[in-house]
Amino acid sequence: MNRVDKNKEEIKIGLLGYGFMGKVHSHAYRTIRHRYNDLKFEPKLYAIAGIGNKLTELAAKQYTFEKWTTEWKEVVHDPEVDIIDICLPEDMHEEVCIEALEMKKNVFCEKPLALSVQGCKKILKTAENKKVKTMCGFNNRFLPAIQFAKEIIDSSQLGNIYYIKANYSQESGHDPDRPADQIRYMHGKEQLGTIRGIGSHLIDTVRYLCGDISSVNAIVKTIIPSRPLTKGGNFNVYADDIAILNIELKNGGIGTLTASAVATGRKNQLAFEINGSLGSIIFDLENLNILSVYLEKNSKRGYRGFSKINVTEDIHPLMKDWLPPAHILGWESGHINELYHFLESVYECKNVSPEGATFFDGYMAALIAEAAIESAKSERKVYLNN
């Protein structure tokens, strides 16, 4: 259904996948119940689907779902389910999205929306005229510091955007002796690589803050092409473990984006610096409550420099229902804010955008990643037509 009846207190959630992200989403739904004041609806953990009877039953008990099954289609076709939340392996997203949309379910899909641009297009086509709410899981949009950064940019306090330097850096693949099957984006039916994996978060964050990207000139490289497997033998890696994108923004600015799984010492750093004609801002996910801001008009000569703002006061975005100032948030808080936003969009029948990432935003992330791969292969700049 598109809109849950306002006389109905519960929004029944069907979660597909019990792994890392399934656990995060389950925790978020439970936390929404007591985090947000004057909540008009009750998120109901209704049904979960996973692989294997024992593990799925265990997850259902741990996450407090009423029902469980090892057949995801049973959840998608259940008339009681209001929302399908897809936390399955990436190569299943396209099929499951389309099936859920055909059943006229509201659909939340973790990134990537699909493994290819064509797959994303099929999903967008299926969603047309279905009158349901859809959202793609780019959770970094719902960190208070990033929404505060967007407020500053949208209010023209930075002036014209000149340059953005951004990276998503992890060390998961830096060791050549680490088995390929232990590294996300390097193994499985489809090797996503960093540009389509963690890089999709990077691309979406840049688009969210600075607007559309008009061209890409990229180097996409596999630094370690052969890795061992846990059970023995070798595995040929063709996925990129580092990608560097030089981009042009439609608004005239330029930027450099780096996605890396070989950043030794980095656990999970999504960082950016945005320079404008009137000021600059700096953010680092490894210190996610802080936004460093320099606004020239507020600074006297001799006192100019960045101020580190603890984005935890009730006047800051998303903070009014959280904790007293300086009681900091964590990474999971972004998912709680994100899924609350989606549930509220369903309940109130309001737009997911601009705060939330639409399925079109998921398509754009795939389009830009594919353009980067094409650019690297052809050794030329690729212009985006969107």
Draw up the topology in text.
Elements: E1 10-16, H1 20-35, E2 42-49, H2 53-63, E3 67-69, H3 72-76, E4 83-86, H4 93-102, E5 106-110, H5 117-127, E6 134-137, H6 144-154, E7 161-169, H7 193-196, H8 198-210, E8 213-221, E9 226-228, E10 234-236, E11 242-249, E12 254-260, E13 269-276, E14 279-284, E15 290-295, E16 307-310, H9 331-348, H10 359-378, E17 382-383
Parallel strand pairs: 1-2, 1-4, 2-3, 4-5, 5-6, 7-12
Antiparallel strand pairs: 7-13, 8-11, 8-17, 9-10, 11-12, 13-14, 14-15, 15-16
- CATH arch. level architecture of the largest domain: 2-Layer Sandwich
CATH topology term of the largest domain: Dihydrodipicolinate Reductase, domain 2
Order of helices and strands: EHEHEHEHEHEHEHHEEEEEEEEEHHE
Taking strands numbered 1, 2, ... along the chain, how are they ordered across the largest sheet?
16-15-14-13-7-12-11-8-17
The average pLDDT is 94
Main sheet characteristics: 9 strands, mixed
